[in-house]
Automatic annotation (TrEMBL):
The keyword Transcription regulation does not apply. This is Gustatory receptor. The chain crosses the membrane at residues 43-66, 78-96, 117-140, 171-200, 286-311, 360-383. One of its GO terms (cellular component) is plasma membrane. It comes from Nephila pilipes. InterPro entries: 7TM_chemorcpt (IPR013604). It is a multi-pass membrane protein. The keyword Isomerase does not apply. The gene is AVEN_124246_1. Keywords: Cell membrane, Membrane, Transmembrane, Transmembrane helix. It is found in: Cell membrane. GO terms for biological process: sensory perception of taste.
Length: 391
């Protein structure tokens, strides 16, 4: 990709800055900073990494010590622990793939500049607010409904039955720590994936509609220079799409699994709340946070799936434009470059581009309903089996 664009106008700059919050420094230049700033910038990611390791060890220990012996159904225990492991795995992937993600930002920005596509939008700021708001709301859902005796139970659970508290203040700090690390990275990845899909869809639309002078002119009549330029831009878009798929495929698969797991967990909690007695009413208050997680998972699953499916739709529109351009070139009376015609013909005959979740499934609109339907069906089946066992 070309580097001839103004970095100061980078529309993704705000997203690059926010990732530093959870210990990821995307291409920041620290050479011009003062010494203490440089040390702080280098130490902070190590401190966050230590917190992540503590969070994972704490979560696994909680599962082994507190969960295994509890009366809660095994599906809920495994689903909750699975989401924590996924959150840690996604953070590790962001660390290892940070250069790839930075390159994605750069390449998509360059495509936007080359094709004169405006990528600056309020959706970027909405994404930042969402990334920060979701952990905060999750924390509030876990703390506001709780009473003092509820907090005592929760602190005992998270401290392996070693701590006893008199009020909810210790629980507020524990819940904040747990909510931040459980949600911040998963939310960010879902948000940035949706935003990048939105940007790529706008680029595809510009490359396949009358908004582009080049495409509009080629759709009306054949021009050899515009034709060759169109092929070059088309190759650039395909390269970026393939790199996007290669970089984000596995992380987004984990995110989708996590969202489906949280939806399932929310349904099982909703069913269990119906049978909760007054003695165990603290479980109902605590499960408000779980219900919020299920709603969040449903919304994010829809956003990610529909955003990824829009790439498939944009690719289909490009095929239609390629067919029109190909016909104009073949019927043109001017000299036609056979090599370029064959090139476009090959592009037109290749399958439409689909984003996938690590190859396990491909994002189309049909996937959304089938995936949600499968999650609901499986959840209802498990709920029915649990109810039959209890009765």
């Amino acid at each position: 990709m070309s580097d001839s664009f103004n970095i100061t106008d980078d529309p993704f700059l705000i997203m690059k800055k926010i990732v530093f919050l959870f210990g990821l420094d995307m291409g920041s230049n620290i050479r011009g900073l003062r010494t203490w700033d440089s040390k702080l910038r280098s130490l902070y990611p190590k401190f966050v990494a230590l917190l992540w390791i503590c969070f994972l060890v704490k979560s696994i220990a909680t599962f082994l010590i507190s969960d295994i012996g509890s009366q809660e159904n095994i599906t809920s225990k495994v689903s909750r622990t699975l989401n924590i492991v996924i959150a840690f795995s996604v953070w590790v992937m962001l660390i290892t793939k940070r250069k790839n993600i930075f390159r994605l930002f750069k390449d998509i920005h360059a495509l936007g500049v080359d094709l004169n596509v405006q990528l600056t939008s309020p959706i970027l700021y909405i994404g930042v607010v969402t990334t920060l708001a979701v952990p905060l709301v999750a924390w509030l859902c876990r703390t506001l409904p709780m009473q003092d005796h509820d907090c005592k139970r929760a602190v005992k659970y998270y401290s392996f039955h070693t701590l006893s508290v008199l009020n909810c203040k210790p629980w507020y700090f524990i819940a904040l720590f747990d909510a931040f690390f459980s949600y911040i990275v998963r939310t960010f990845l879902a948000v940035i994936y949706t935003i990048l899909c939105w940007a790529l869809r706008r680029i595809l639309n510009s490359h396949s509609t009358g908004k582009s002078d080049m495409v509009r002119n080629l759709s009306l009549s054949y021009n050899p220079h515009s034709f060759e330029h169109y092929l070059v831009k088309n190759e650039s878009i395909i390269q970026v799409l393939k790199y996007f798929e290669k970089t984000m495929s596995l992380p987004i698969f984990l995110i989708e699994v996590s969202d489906l797991s949280e939806m399932f967990l929310g349904l099982t909690y909703w069913n269990s709340n119906i049978h909760i007695t007054l003695k165990n009413s603290w479980v109902k208050r605590y499960s408000i946070g779980t219900c919020f997680s299920a709603v969040r998972a449903f919304v994010f699953f829809l956003c990610v799936s529909l955003a990824a499916a829009s790439i498939h739709e944009g690719s289909e529109k490009c095929k239609e434009v390629q067919e029109t351009i190909l016909k104009n070139a073949l019927y043109s009376k001017s000299m036609v470059n056979t090599r370029d015609i064959i090139h476009l013909l090959i592009l037109h005959q290749t399958p439409t581009f689909k984003l996938s979740a690590s190859g396990f499934f491909y994002f189309t609109k049909g996937l959304v309903l089938s995936a949600i339907g499968s999650a609901l069906t499986y959840s209802l089946f498990i709920i029915q089996q649990v109810d039959d066992y209890k009765s």
